[in-house]
């Protein structure tokens, strides 16, 4: 008898197969010859990889600007590509998995650390979390800021679920850039946690934050650090590359400069505490996904056979102890990693002038 998940996968397969039959070229824009951050033509290939999270077909290239250090997807996903590669990752077939990750002890610790980063700058009355997902950050941040009203904004239906389940007081679904005008000067804090790297135009997102904030309000940004030594050591297996979803990787100096241009004053930067201690584990999982037989996925032409499914199960059982050891190493090394350039993320707090 087919399980509920298998039935869902079977129901999704015809749509995916129809899209794939039309080819992958339409999922990409033309390749750029200049840097989207500084317009320099001094580009070089930085990385070529595949979709490790979902195993959808396609090859993705990251280029690095030799003038400013900006790393970006090139060619970039088109609107059709964004729809195809995001679908069933954070919602749909992937919703249950993402909910488990968002509620994990590690995630809760990260959420609370992010919320505490604003404590030196006063007690906000109203806070907008952009890219909020299902609102788990807001639920934890309310423990640190009990008098603050939290609102959330995102593209997916998760933001509406967050409002229904009481994690946020108000939900906005859609584009932050498109909605910024109606949110003008309404917020004491705008936060963007691992959001900016997903966006088509990061500078426009910063401008939208400036619009939504009251004078003297604060913007909290946390992103993967493309200058991390871990990124160089682990290459395409480094988890924060997260292709094809991450479109831009902004070096710290570049982000601080852009914030100043948009009318902000940077009041704090931190390359240590935002580190997410999963580099070795996520690299091993990415590598494992590339060598094990695939699970049943609707973007595959057909369901894997019994032999393939058994080989996958046995492979997972065999490597489970190794993954547990790597999790332990990641956490054991975290205090040291945070104090070095191995740290994989950074945080900026900026005041709207």
Task: Write up this protein.
Pfam families: Methyltransf_23 (PF13489). This is Methyltransferase type 12. It comes from Streptomyces angustmyceticus. This protein is an alpha/beta fold and 353 residues long. It has two domains: 4-93, N-terminal domain of TfIIb (Single Sheet); 95-278 and 336-352, Rossmann fold. Strand 4 (126-130), helix 5 and strand 5 form a beta-alpha-beta unit. Helix 4 packs across helix 5 and helix 11 packs antiparallel against helix 12. It has twelve helices and eleven strands.
> Beta fraction of the residues?
15-25%
Structural class: alpha/beta
CATH third-level topology of the largest domain:
Rossmann fold
Q: What integer is the average pLDDT?
A: 95
> What spatial form do the alpha-carbon principal axes imply?
globular
* Strand order in the largest sheet: 6-5-4-7-8-11-10
**Count of helix runs:** 12
- CATH classification, class level of the largest domain: Alpha Beta
CATH architecture label of the largest domain = 3-Layer(aba) Sandwich
**Largest sheet report:** 7 strands, mixed
Protein name: Methyltransferase type 12
GO biological process, one term: methylation
GO molecular function: methyltransferase activity
Pfam families: Methyltransf_23
Structural topology:
Elements: H1 4-21, E1 43-49, E2 60-65, E3 71-73, H2 79-86, H3 95-102, H4 105-116, E4 126-130, H5 136-144, E5 149-154, H6 158-164, E6 170-173, H7 176-179, E7 187-193, H8 202-212, E8 213-224, H9 229-234, E9 248-249, H10 252-261, E10 264-270, H11 279-291, H12 306-338, E11 345-352
Parallel strand pairs: 4-5, 4-7, 5-6, 7-8
Antiparallel strand pairs: 1-2, 2-3, 3-9, 8-11, 10-11
Helix pairs in contact: 4-5, 11-12
């Amino acid at each position: 008898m087919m399980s509920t998940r298998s039935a869902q996968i079977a129901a999704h397969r015809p749509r995916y197969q129809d899209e794939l039959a039309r080819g992958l070229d339409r999922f990409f824009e033309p390749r750029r010859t200049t840097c989207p951050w500084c317009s320099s033509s001094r580009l070089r290939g930085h990385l070529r990889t595949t979709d490790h999270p979902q195993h959808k077909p396609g090859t993705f290239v990251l280029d690095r600007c030799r003038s400013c250090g900006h790393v970006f997807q090139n060619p970039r996903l088109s609107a059709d590509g964004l729809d195809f590669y995001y679908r069933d990752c954070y919602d749909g077939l992937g919703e249950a998995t993402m909910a488990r990750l968002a509620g994990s002890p590690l995630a809760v610790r990260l959420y609370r650390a992010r919320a505490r980063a604003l404590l030196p700058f006063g007690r906000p009355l109203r806070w907008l979390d952009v890219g909020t997902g299902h609102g788990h950050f807001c639920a934890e941040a309310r423990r640190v800021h009990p008098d603050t009203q939290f609102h959330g904004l995102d593209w997916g239906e998760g933001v509406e679920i967050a409002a229904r389940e009481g994690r946020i007081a108000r939900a906005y679904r859609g584009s932050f850039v498109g909605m910024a005008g109606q949110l003008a000067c309404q917020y004491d804090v705008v936060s963007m946690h691992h959001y900016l790297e997903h966006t088509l135009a990061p500078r426009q997102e910063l401008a939208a934050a400036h619009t939504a904030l009251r004078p003297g309000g604060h913007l909290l940004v946390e992103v993967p650090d493309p200058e991390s030594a871990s990124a160089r050591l682990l290459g395409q297996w480094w988890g924060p590359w997260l292709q094809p979803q991450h479109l831009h990787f902004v070096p710290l100096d570049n982000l601080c400069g852009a914030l100043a241009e948009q009318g902000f004053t940077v009041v704090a930067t931190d390359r240590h505490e935002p580190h997410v201690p999963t580099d070795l584990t996520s690299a091993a999982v990415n590598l494992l996904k590339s060598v094990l037989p695939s699970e049943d996925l609707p973007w595959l032409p057909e369901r894997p056979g019994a032999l393939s499914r058994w080989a996958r199960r046995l492979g997972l059982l065999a490597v489970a102890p190794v993954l547990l050891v790597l999790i332990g190493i990641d956490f054991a090394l975290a205090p040291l990693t945070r104090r070095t350039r191995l740290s994989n993320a950074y945080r900026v707090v900026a005041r709207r002038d």
